[in-house]
Design a protein that fits this description.
350 residues; six-stranded mixed sheet; Heat Shock Protein 90; alpha+beta; two-stranded antiparallel sheet
């Protein structure tokens, strides 16, 4: 019978190495063999300048290791040991913090993977249920049609058939919603990975396709009941056929665009988007005809939220956008006057 090997879940490593001990040891050696001789050299040079004593660096170094100088040797050894111990202790705390951060990041990735697995199974279950119900409805429709074909008095068959068709349409909608849920979940999880990573993974992508996709999502879902006119470079957004390929993180960029565009659509009904292709960066301007913004107030509320103070608005979308842009080397600017609308300037490095 084979021996069972039990596996343990990963745990954060608190300490790796006795850094205070090695700091004590190396600090004591440094104090005795470096600190004390250096002090004697400085002392001899001082005596030479002010007391006109003999200038003999060799004699000063030899004297630092003589038996007569043991009090200073002990003093410098203990001082170096104490200083080294403190440095070792601080280094061990920094290393422990770094290891704990790595462990939390791995745990976050596991949680994200578990979440994706759970909702993926949920989406698959919804699609499977809709498929089975659709098959059952088809079979039931055939059975009822066969029964009514043999009888002259079959009341309500047309009404039943119409209801079955409506129900089948609802099942198709449910199936489409399950696919949208799976696609949206994939994008959200990729965004979570982008937020947790040290830097964003840049891939070649067309900026206009991401911009049009963001507009389509917002206008179809969030602002479908509002009459909003959106233009890209002076033309209607749905007529945009331009392309601008360069390397950027598409999911993080889409989140930034949706946050800025949704803010503009929330306060204005005419949105003008301009894309400026520059030498080392791409500038995206989003201008609305809303009431404008108080820039100083927004800056204060952003800093107040970061400092943990209570602000009128958390500006979560704006904070996430700033965080993502900072990771890829981008910037976000705002120009606005009260009553004259606002313009967001998004800068993406090439």
């Amino acid at each position: 019978m084979r021996q069972i090997e039990f596996l343990e879940p990963p745990r954060p490593v608190l300490f790796q190495g006795n850094y205070p001990f090695w700091g004590f040891f190396l600090g004591a050696l440094s104090g005795v063999f470096l600190g004390h001789p250096l002090f004697m050299l400085i002392y001899v040079f001082h005596e030479y300048l002010y007391q006109y004593g003999p200038l003999s660096f060799t004699q000063a170094i030899l004297h630092s290791f003589s038996f007569q100088a043991w009090p200073l040797t002990v003093f410098f050894g203990l001082s170096g040991a104490l200083f080294g111990s403190v440095l070792g202790w601080v280094y061990s705390l920094l290393k422990e913090s770094r290891l704990h951060e790595e462990f939390l990041r791995k745990e976050f990735e596991l949680q994200v993977a578990s979440l994706r697995h759970h909702y993926k199974n949920l989406a698959i279950g919804i699609k499977g249920l809709s498929r089975r119900v659709k098959n059952k409805l088809g079979n039931l429709d055939i059975v009822l049609e066969g029964i009514c074909a043999k009888r002259d008095d079959c009341p309500g068959f047309q009404e039943y058939s119409k209801e079955f068709q409506n129900l089948e349409n609802h099942i198709v909608t449910l199936d489409s919603a399950a696919r949208d849920l799976e696609d949206t979940l994939t994008k959200e999880l990729q965004l979570l990975r982008a937020l947790a990573s040290d830097c964003l993974m840049l891939v070649p992508q067309d900026l206009y396709s991401v911009l049009v996709s963001s507009l389509q999502t917002l206008l179809a879902l969030r602002f479908q009941e509002q009459e909003i006119k959106v233009e890209i470079n002076g033309r209607p957004w749905d007529e945009c056929r331009e392309t601008l390929p360069f390397q950027f993180e598409p999911y993080a960029t889409e989140v930034v665009l949706q946050n800025i565009l949704s803010n503009a659509m929330k306060y204005g009904n005419h949105i003008q988007i301009r894309v400026l292709d520059q030498a080392d960066q791409v500038q995206i301007e989003v201008e609305d005809n809303g009431p404008g913004l108080e820039l100083e107030k927004i800056k204060y509320e952003l800093q107040s939220t970061f400092a943990g103070k209570k602000a009128e608005s958390t500006h979560l979308g704006l904070s996430v956008s700033l965080y993502l842009l900072a990771k890829c080397g981008g910037r976000l600017g705002i120009s606005s006057e009260p009553g004259k609308g606002a313009t967001f300037h998004i800068f993406l490095p090439k």
